[in-house]
Design brief:
- The chain is mainly alpha-helical.
- The protein has 10 helices and 2 strands.
- It has a two-stranded parallel ribbon with strand order 1-2.
- The chain is globular.
- The two termini are about 20 Å apart.
Length: about 190
Amino acid sequence: MEHKSCGWAKKPLDIVYHDTEWGVPVHDDKKLFEFLVLDAFQAGLSWSTILNKRENFRKAFDNFDYTKIANYKQDKIDKLLKDEGIIRNKLKIKGTVKNASAFIKVQEEFGTFDKYIWSFTGGKTIINSWREMKEVPATSIESDAMSKDLKKRGFTFVGSTICYAFMQAAGMVNDHLVTCFRYKEVLQ
């Protein structure tokens, strides 16, 4: 029996990501930071591009260790700007360093970033019931609120569209199509 899937996952890495990660609720701060970084770098690019470079990002950014990243100096930023394995965007690289510091401040205030970020959905996954990809929104009331609050806290590259993509990745919303085999699986 063939698995019916969401239409966007066509390339091998996309399919693995869709079938194993996308939409699964994440409550680990390190993983949440990773998604925050990857979604920021994805702005203006395809998710396939990011997935193809994900391991390179992992190596380049110290396995997404936000405490190390928050302390990056100019020499490390210069090294990242020369790293052909990642997206070499100066603003996004500097933004990642800035976001790591802001991330730590949120942890200090709330105990965990997880507790803070999931407050935008009341601590629960928002379950949508889309039938076609064209129904899936780019933003929501929750992503608007998240974006506004993250910006107020000093984060960058956290517009509402990026926040909504982050919510999808981190399982804060279930945007698998109702016809997708993963729709019910991620509800578990």
